[in-house]
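Board notes (copied after class):
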Amino acid sequence: MASLAENRASVPRICVWRDRACVPLSAGAPTLSSAHSPWNGALLERLIHGPHTEDTHQHLSHFLVLHLGGPSQIAWRFAGKTGIKTVAPGEISVISRGTEDSTSFPQGSKRIVLNLEPSIFKRVFPEEDFGNDVELIDQWSVEDRQVEYILRGLEADLEAGIPAGGLFGESLSMPSQFMSSVDTA
């Protein structure tokens, strides 16, 4: 897995590994992005799309999604299983680095996506020995108000032009904020 992350192009987008290339997760530009923020180790995008499919891809970083629109359906393929689920606004999906999946949004989607690089966990928990990485437990569309409010706070900070500089965004995007809510392996 490390070799995939090392081969990423310096694209200021949330990227995945698809067809032996590092490509943006979704086509089209995000409606909001932290690509030019002073945040280190975290990248947030707000994505709004009509009906679309995200073909099979592998996540290069840990991935949190806050579903904003809906309720809407999502069809997914993950770990040899397929499913269709109705997601409601405010529900969270957690996808661990290295996970391979494909998703389809027949009614379109509106979501906030936060990518967390493995290095951010080492900065927050220097005394812990995670090896090269932590492993999050993948979850599709669960309710977690704390994570929802953190992601909405990051979105609001970006919309306001990052008035506190990098400090507010970096403190909210720290994994310690999520660890009490998100299951880890």
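Comment from the instructor: Residues 1-11 have pLDDT under 50 and may be disordered. The first helix runs from residue 2 to 6.
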